[in-house]
Amino acid sequence: MSELLSSYLAGSWFTASDEGRPVLDAVTGQEVCRVSATGADLAAAIEHARTVGVPAIQALTFHERAAILKAVAKHLTAAKDDFYALSTHTGATRRDSAADIDGGIGTVFSFASKATRELPNDTIVLDGKPETLGKAGTFVGQHIYTSRPGVAVQINAFNFPVWGMLEKFAPAFLAGRPSLVKPASQTAYLTHAVAASMLDSGLLPEGSLQLLCGSPEGLLDLLGTQDHLAFTGSAATAATLRQHPSVVYGGLELGVEADSLNCSILGPDVRPEDPEFDLFVKGVVTEMTVKAGQKCTAIRRVLVPADRVDDVISALSQRLSKITVGNPADETVRMGALVSLDQRDEVRKSVQALRASADLVFGDPDHVSVVDASAVDGAFMGPVLLRAHDGAMEPHEVEPFGPVSTVITYSSVPEAISLAAKGGGSLAGSLVTHDPAVAREVILGLAPWHGRLLVLDRDDAAESTGHGSPLPSLVHGGPGRAGGGEELGGIRAVLHHMQRTAIQASPDALTAITGSWFTGAERTVSSQHPFRKSLATLRIGDAIVSDRRTVTADDIAHFAEFTGDTFYAHTDPEAAAANPLFGGIVAHGYLVVSLAAGLFVEPNPGPVLANFGVDNLRFLTPVKVDDSIAVTLTVKAITPRSSADYGEVRWDAVVTNQRDEPVATYDVLTLVAKQD
Ligand code: NDP
Known about the structure:
Blueprint: E1 7-9, E2 12-14, E3 21-24, E4 31-35, H1 42-58, H2 62-78, H3 80-87, H4 94-118, E5 125-132, E6 140-146, E7 152-155, H5 163-174, E8 179-182, H6 188-200, E9 209-211, E10 228-233, H7 235-242, H8 245-248, E11 253-258, E12 262-266, H9 275-289, E13 299-305, H10 309-320, H11 341-354, E14 358-362, E15 384-388, H12 394-397, E16 404-410, H13 413-421, E17 426-432, H14 436-446, E18 450-456, E19 475-476, E20 487-488, H15 491-496, E21 499-505, H16 507-514, E22 524-525, E23 542-545, E24 549-550, H17 553-563, H18 568-571, H19 573-578, H20 589-600, E25 608-619, E26 628-640, E27 646-656, E28 662-673
Helix pairs in contact: 2-4, 3-4, 3-6, 4-5, 9-10, 13-14
The chain binds NADPH dihydro-nicotinamide-adenine-dinucleotide phosphate.
């Protein structure tokens, strides 16, 4: 008998008390492992996540969490070959496995790097700018994101056993939430191998990752308001989960990513001799055959102008005829097996349903010639292309989760949009066109129905990542039938796991709560210039109030001549007088900012290493000849970099005139040494 997969729960490996159910190799039909969770103490696992995992992760800053993720990704990269070997049991070719294994590890790397660059080295995130709530500036609003004391449970699909876990784990971990992963039983052995490698690495704080191989029965009963359940799989299971009392009454957040009938549209401008025609055909064939079409983003509906349908079908058929099917261990094989014989039966049933209103134009759902004769027991199926009858509804409703697509014709752009919308909401869509007007009309029509859209043409083709690849930095998920959930999308995915709260308070209270200085809060002006302080002694609120400087007509003329910025408002008194906003010569905004730098700078070598930019620069009041300006510079935020001996300091800069009116406001961004 094969190995019974263990689960990692509440700090130790657990093996079920029964024999479990067998999981068969997709290619050979041999037993790979057995799966059962009988006897697992799920209540202890959830308690462990909340009481051990939550405090352990939340004691770390975002940058420390990111450093752990990066180390985990490196660790997994080193063990990749083992995962590839296991992945062939799922029916995957090397290319399919790359999308799952390298795609998953790459997603962890990407989140680690994004978090280091885009999140503070802190445990909370400020959302947007402060809102002034009182005229005197003593009552201010600020939205903040904080980590929740709950667990992120994943119930995953069989088709991406590695990527499915890692793309959910990375953002949850960054957000301070421990994960409990329940992989689909059919491919759980691969998820198990990767999770075991992560746990064995010793890199993760205890409690941050748990694994449940087997039935999750009773799990949802244990979850509540501070927890999150991310589900990927069938719409039917999603519907069951949506009705669970913990979701309906208990405040459990549920994110669903379910089957969707994604489309690719050939633009009306594209003729068979255009490069876009080939790109379209290649894209459809790739999506039909990668992972044997078992991808939530695969192209199920191929929308083409009615007068080009024969050309498209002929080009697709020609390409599909070159797809070799068989044992993925054979390097000549282009398409492996479906994940199981049951899954193949399901796909055949779907093809049967589609044939009620569509003709088979390529392939045979019931027979396929297989490259490696020793693998004839596998769940193989060749690519199948159908052509829908006019007005057919089945192609918009039936999802064959395999190498199957249906060609549908349209006669106008509005009709193409309305056909795409009949899918009821999709994860991904693509449009192949080189006409900007078509791109705008179609994309604006499609966007409300999609989570992600690719516009493919000769200009972006070489770098395009294709129709079906979710990317860590872009949103993955779609409305309606696609489940309504949203994953990935860079830091958005982290923030989805956190609670956004509006805080109303005085500037001093907000400064204390957030660790960032707010306008109106106390400043510390001392005899020591803050540029003389390293991060060891620099504090939020440390400030310098500069002397005044008069801006003369000569200053403005000199700046105009020196920089070449001779815009009339700075050089032509008559024209400037006619300007309704200025009524006379005014200083260049950049002159004001440059003079301000001259007013606040401390010129000697010291802990300030560089100025790497300004944010939010606004010129509020024109500076006229002989106005005098001064600047107040205050430490607003300090972000030490974990991997360097310096950090970022954000300074609030306010330039005022002799009437104390603000003439310019901005944030100055500097790099400052950690030690003197
Ligand atoms: P399921 O919805 O049956 O399974 C998905 C996950 O949910 C698995 O981990 C499964 O566990 C678990 N599960 C099943 N029933 C329950 C339940 N009552 N409570 C909690 N968890 C449950 O989908 P399949 O994997 O069987 O695939 C069926 C169809 O779903 C495919 O043919 C395809 O149409 C669609 N699908 C969509 C995907 C997408 O990414 N959008 C991906 C994969 C499939 P277990 O494996 O142990 O049963």
